[in-house]
Amino acid sequence: MTATASAPARANEIHLTRLYDAPVALVWDAWTDLEQLAQWWGPRGFTITTKSKDLRPGGSWDYIMHGPDGKDWPNFARYHEVEHHKLLVYDHGATSTDAKPLFHVTARFRDVGGKTELDMRMMFASAEEAQQSRVFIKAAGGNSTWDRLAEYLEKEVTHKDVFVIARSFDASIETVYDMWTKPEHIAAWSAPTGFTMQFHDVDLRPGGHGFYSMTNGQFTMYGRAEYIEMRKPDRIQYTQQFTDEHGNMSRHPMAPTWPAKMLTTVQLASEGPSQTRVSLRWEVFGEATDEERATFAMAKAGMTQGWTGSFDNLEEQLAKRAAH
C-alpha cells in the first residue's frame, strides 16, 4: 500500500511512517497502556521500567531503558498535546525533569481501511543534531522499536509469532521491486554479511523456484525458494527452506531445531518519487514443533542482525545503480 502523502521532512527532522494491520484503538492502547508498552518499546533486547506516567497535556512519562549489556538509560518525556486515538505531541529524550529534551515528537494515528497509519516526526534543534541521531539510531538498532510494535500487534490480532523489519531506501518503488525480483540483483545483495550468493537453478515467477548457495569461502549452505506471489510493484511472497547440495530438503546446518520452512512476505510502499519503504515479515510456514517455534521466537535479535546486513548491501547496490 502506498504511504499517504505528507509534507517532506525538514533537514532537522527524522520522519517515519508505518502501516500496522490493526485498528487505531489497538495501536493507541499499545502506545499508552503501560503493560502493553513494556512488551515492545525500545530496540530489540531492551526492556523498560516506568517510574511514572501521566498521559495528559502537561503530564509526563518518566522511565528507564535497560540495555542488553546491563546499561541503564534514563528517559523523560513531557506531553503537550493528547488527542485520543489521533495525536501525541511531546518533548522527549531528557534524562530528568529539569534536563533539556533532545527532540520534539509529533505522532499521528490514522485509520486506513481498518489498518493504522503511524506518521511520526522527531524535530531537533539543528540539521546536524538530526543527522547525529540518525547515525546513533541506526547503530543502536532503534528502528527495530517499530518492528517490535508490528510483531506485538500481530500477536494480539492473530496470535501468530512473526518477525518484522522495515527500512526506507532512496530509490523508486519500481527500482526496489527489480532488486527483489531479478536473480542477478538478488544474488548481489541478499546474502548475510561476509557471504556471497549464487543461483544454480532459477525460475523467478509465481509458481517458480530458485535453488541457490551462500558461501563465505570456508562454509557453504544451500537453500530453495518457492515463489507464491509477485505483484509488481509492491508485493512479493515466497517460502524458503534449507537443502543439501543436490537440492534435497535439509535442516539448518547450525541449528537443527530451526523450523523446516519459512514464509517471507515483502511489502513495498512509495514514500515519494525517489524513496521506498520495504516492510518484511518472516514467519514459520506449515507444521512445526513447539521447540522449533521457540527457536524462531528466541532468534529475532540474530534475524535483525542478518537482515540489517543484507539491507546494508541493498543500500550499497542501489547507490551504485543511482551513480550510473
**Major β-sheet profile:** 7 strands, antiparallel
- Could you give the count of β-strands? 14
Q: Per DSSP, what share of the residues sits in E-state strands of 2 or more residues?
A: 35-45%
Secondary-structure element sequence? EHHEEEEEEHHEHHEEEEEEHH
> Which blocks of ≥5 consecutive residues have pLDDT under 50?
1-5
Category by helix and strand content: alpha+beta
Main β-sheet, spatial strand arrangement: 1-7-6-5-4-3-2
Shape: globular
Kindly state the percentage of residues in helix. Answer: 25-40%
Our Rg estimate from Cα atoms comes to: 21 Å
Give a description of the structure.
The protein has 324 residues and is α+β, with helices and mostly antiparallel strands. It has eight helices and 14 strands. It has helices at residues 24-32, 34-37, 127-140, 144-158, 173-181, 183-189, 290-298, 300-323, and strands at 13-20, 47-53, 60-66, 72-83, 87-94, 103-112, 115-123, 163-169, 196-203, 209-215, 220-231, 235-243, 262-270, 276-284. Strands 1-7-6-5-4-3-2 form a seven-stranded antiparallel beta sheet. A seven-stranded antiparallel beta sheet has the order 8-14-13-12-11-10-9. The radius of gyration is 21 Å and the shape is globular. It starts with 12 loop residues before the first strand and ends with a helix. The model is unreliable at 1-5 (pLDDT under 50).
